[in-house]
Amino acid sequence: MTPEIESSHAVQAVELPLLLELERNPAFTFSLLSALEREPGKLDYDAPDRLLAQPEGTLKRLKQQSVRTAQDRAAAAREQCERRTRAISGDIRAAGGIITIDVQTRFAPASAPIDADLVLRLRPPLANERRPNRLALEDLALSLEALPNLLALSGARSARFLGGAHLSVAYALGASLPTTAIGAVDVIDTAGQSWTLSGNAPVPEAPPRLLGVDSISSATAGTGPVLVYLDLLPAPSSSAAQALLSRNGNSFAAAYQIRPSRQGNLNPGEAGTLAGEVSQIIRTLAATHRTREVHLLLRCPWAIALLVGRTLNTLRIQLYEWEDGPDDEGNATEPRYLPSLAVRSGTGGSAIEQVLLPAHPTK
User: Fold this and answer.
1) Checking CA distances to 6, which of 122, 130, 228, 229 falls within 20 to 30 Å?
2) What is the tens place of the pLDDT at every residue in 324-346?
3) Three-state SS across 163-227?
4) Cα-atom radius of gyration of the chain, to the nearest Å?
């Protein structure tokens, strides 16, 4: 509800009558998210009926929540999700305790039939950019702490993710559901393949291993956080990572690259082992350099980013996103990694500790 709604014939004559008809069905949830205030900070509960020419009390009797601030919008979203999760908890238990979450961060949200229990949509990237929308990350940071509670309300014993996401967002989703919080998380990729981590990530005890690790820079400070470049795609590409090191190498104690030990595509059936090896390597590197902070560049399937995020809950991870669009002033530039999120799970509140993505001063 905004002041402009008074000018919408479609809302008054078509949409609202249908919504009020649906509202009679107890399976339908109807509430008002309002920007209409009688004075700063206080909603005008009479305004919806007045602006939409309804008999007094028609809309006033419904729950109304403020959406004036990002915090208000996050609180409203959390409450709607809680109401839905409670309503479908019986269906989730009947389906074997699996809650299905459909995720998409790269495309503009649209109304479409989606076969999922919960749906996550963020503001899409700005024109000509690949990085997430900074405002979308800020929304996510305010809302993500609700995810573990939603799973608890649903009675789910495992979670299944569908869709696709920026890699820093995928990692943050995983970090919000560490292995200590829920038994199994399954990610279905666009080819319909399943990537699963059940329970604690397996710790490799002896070769052969799926991954190898190499030092990639000698121009480092010797102290500070460790930089790790996780490059799991078939054809290696290190130019953007090397460019980051050339600019900021003296900020890190050391820098390493993790690569598959064999050629070809990753095997989704080995997802748990892959996540376990990545976790063990990163933890070992951090311990070697006496730090609990790791800067992580991800070049891998989003499923792996999410599953690895479940396994590093004792470390503070600074995540980056790859960008090949213009710089913040609109000038053409080389592909580069930009800081995106600082994530630290298991501390209470949102797993996202800080949004780091550069703002756009001219946009």
Assistant:
1) 122
2) 988 877 788 899 999 999 999 87
3) EECCHHHHHHHHHCCCCCCCCEEEEECCCCCEEEEECCCCCCCCCCCCEEEEECCCCCCCCCCEE
4) 23
CA neighbor of 135 nearest in space, from 330, 355, 345: 355
Picking from 79, 150, 71, the residue whose alpha carbon sits closest to that of residue 118 is 150
Euclidean distance between CA atoms 121 and 133, whole angstroms: 12
User: Which residue type, as a one-letter code, is found at position 280?
Assistant: Q
Decide if 170 contacts 195 (C-beta within 8 A).
no
- Which residues lie below 8 Å from residue 140, measured CB to CB, with a gap of 6+? 122, 169, 172, 352
- Tell me the C-alpha distance between 222 and 133, whole Å: 34
Percentage of the chain lying above the pLDDT 70 cut: 98
The pair of structure tokens assigned to 216 is: 């990639």
The amino acid at 215: S
Q: What are phi and psi of 143, to 5 degrees?
A: -105, -25
Q: Is 123 helix (H, G, I), strand (E, B) or coil?
A: coil
Distance CA 171, CA 169 (A): 5
User: What is the model's pTM?
Assistant: 0.92
| Burial zone of 183 (CB within 10 Å; 0-12 exposed, 13-18 middle, 19+ buried) | middle
pLDDT, tens digit, 9 for 90 and up, residues 116-164 = 999 999 999 999 899 999 999 999 999 999 999 999 999 999 999 999 9
Neighbours of 26 (CB within 10 A): 7
Tokens linked to 260:
């598959």
Say how far apart CA 155 and CA 278 lie, in whole Å.
Answer: 30
Helix locations, the chain, DSSP H:
9-10, 16-22, 47-51, 70-94, 134-143, 146-154, 167-175, 239-248, 271-288, 302-309
Q: Tell me which DSSP letter residue 332 carries.
A: -
Q: Among 3, 61, 71, 11, which residue's Cα sits nearest to residue 37?
A: 3
